[in-house]
Amino acid sequence: MALDVFLGLLTGVLQEGFVYGIMALGIYVTYQVLNFPDLSVEGTFPLGSCVAGVMIASGLNPWLACMAAFACGAAAGGVTGLLHVKLHITDLLSGILVMTALWSVNLAVTSGSAVTPFYNQPTIYTSGPAALISDSHNSLRALVVAFISCLFVKLLLDEYLKTKSGLLLRAAGNNPRYVVSLGKDPGNMKILGLMLGNGLAALSGCILCQREESADIYSGTGMIVLGLAAVIVGVNIFSGIRFLRSTTAVILGAVLYRGVLVAALQMGLPTNYMKLLMAVLLTVVLVAYKTVPTGRRKKHVSRTEV
Amino acid sequence: MLVERKSEPLLEFRQIDKTFHSGTVSELKLFDHFDLSVPQGRFVCIIGSNGSGKTTLLNLLCGGETPDAGNIFLGGREITREPEHVRSRRIGRVFQDPSLGTCPQLTILENLSLADRKGKRYGLSRGVSRKKIDEYRSRLELLKLGLEDQLDLPVANLSGGQRQALALLICTMTPIDLLILDEHTAALDPSSSENVMELTRRFVREKRLTALMVTHNLRFALAYGDRLVMMHRGKAVLDVCDGEKNALKIHDLTERFNEISVEDGNDV
Ligand SMILES: Nc1ncnc2c1ncn2[C@@H]1O[C@H](COP(=O)(O)OP(=O)(O)O)[C@@H](O)[C@H]1O
Ligand SMILES: [Mg+2]
């Protein structure tokens, strides 16, 4: 019996970890690659949920909803970038402005309701290829869908970071002067990276809410903390392992972080203290890894890694 | 060496004014109707005491600063108000700080691949084209630093001298009108400095570049280039070329420096 419970919890942790992992990959792009502390994620994550919720509730295809969520997140990230690059507002403030504005935007999307349920509508967990697995293996099916989605996003991101545009994006985060000397505007690369990062955050929100079959406007709270913890834990803890790419490490970081939270809840921590615990955990992570010199930090992606 | 001297100079500063902190007590009128023109194919060394305006001159040229008045022309086109990254397409620059001329996190190969696309589109095709590796290897061999065997090493792991040599290679890889060297050996140990200066001479000669080099090393200023400009308080107080420059001795330059310091009221 105990094993059953444990396996159930493990499936849940992995499933959610992989979904949050997609958002963590977005934060990896903005925070780690671009060196941009982007707070707009707290607004773009629920934006993805709300857009998907409204679309699926009105009977639209859930995969289409995923693409729309990504596009909306990217547009919002683009606004953050424009505020910072064109209007010279600081990175933190640009994020705060967009996050605040998105609160109203999200409410407008859902026509004013905080929760948009879409029970029994087809979602990516129940329709399409997922229908190959029977309803009786419900949670396993969810895990498979989450895993494949996350893997797909990771592989695409890995490929992108190896293209010319991807290399230039990495250069823009590492040495903007170098990008200038190549005849390109590093500001444009920042905007592009913020679009990508927030697109992924919205996609993550969209995939998460489809599992719950309802979109929650409050779901964004704590996403920065979760994403940052995943990135920092991933890049630092797992960077010791050879042949492991940073993107993989970030996803493992998200799973691990999720696991610790669920473990704490299982050990009797009241749900109300969840965000407090999230913040405490990130604080511990920040303090623990502050001493790692940047020179020892993992380089981004190399050919020989997973 | 055959250098075509066109009637129109390659680079021209015309009547440049630049004042810092204008309207405050610390107002500093650095350039006042400053003129300088450099014909195609010249290698100009610029020396001068601290605060004489050398870096500001390069910043005006590259777009980091905008003049209050006056015009800057490069290759017959006015660039006074062109954005920095647009000008960079025709200018190569090596900075004093070795970490600025390359991207430390990327490998040597990735840096070269990026530089190879300068001025072109950076799209979704493969960042590193394997077909070009042999070409990059043979270019790196010119540096004689063994970098051709370390293509997959992040540039962060290289020494300052290696990085400056690589930066030099990178910014002369694509066709440029003008090479700018901003005290590019100042952060290096003596033997790396010599090496980088020799490479500089070779690249400038082989690619027939027009170059502007700011240096604090008077010996380099005399040994390299075919024109020497000494700056003081935003003015060119000495401007000699060819035979006249070759006749100069370090002693002559230090004497000029001392005169200037006395003018400034400094102890020598
Ligand atoms: N951005 C700036 N703001 C204010 N003053 C400046 C700025 N840049 C340069 N200056 C001043 O202009 C003078 C010339 O500086 P600079 O061009 O750096 O001289 P150099 O490179 O010859 O040592 C100095 O007095 C310096 O303080
Ligand atoms: Mg200077």
From TrEMBL, chain A:
It is a multi-pass membrane protein. One of its GO terms (molecular function) is transmembrane transporter activity. The chain crosses the membrane at residues 6-31, 67-85, 92-119, 191-211, 217-238, 273-292. InterPro entries: ABC_transp_permease (IPR001851). It is found in: Cell membrane. Keywords: Cell membrane, Membrane, Transmembrane, Transmembrane helix. This is Branched-chain amino acid transport system / permease component.
TrEMBL record, chain B:
One of its GO terms (cellular component) is plasma membrane. The keyword Transport applies. It comes from the Bacteria. Its main location: membrane. It is found in: Cell membrane. One of its GO terms (molecular function) is ATP hydrolysis activity. Residues 11-258 form the ABC transporter domain. The keyword Calcium does not apply. Gene3D superfamilies: P-loop containing nucleotide triphosphate hydrolases. Pfam families: ABC_tran (PF00005). It is a peripheral membrane protein. Keywords: ATP-binding, Cell membrane, Membrane, Nucleotide-binding, Transport. InterPro entries: AAA+_ATPase, ABC_transporter-like_ATP-bd, ABC_transporter-like_CS, ABC_transporter_ATP-bind, P-loop_NTPase. Coiled coil: none annotated. PROSITE patterns: ABC_TRANSPORTER_1, ABC_TRANSPORTER_2. This is Sulfate/thiosulfate import ATP-binding protein CysA. It comes from Caproicibacter fermentans. The lineage of its organism: Bacteria, Bacillati, Bacillota, Clostridia, Eubacteriales. The gene is cysA_1.
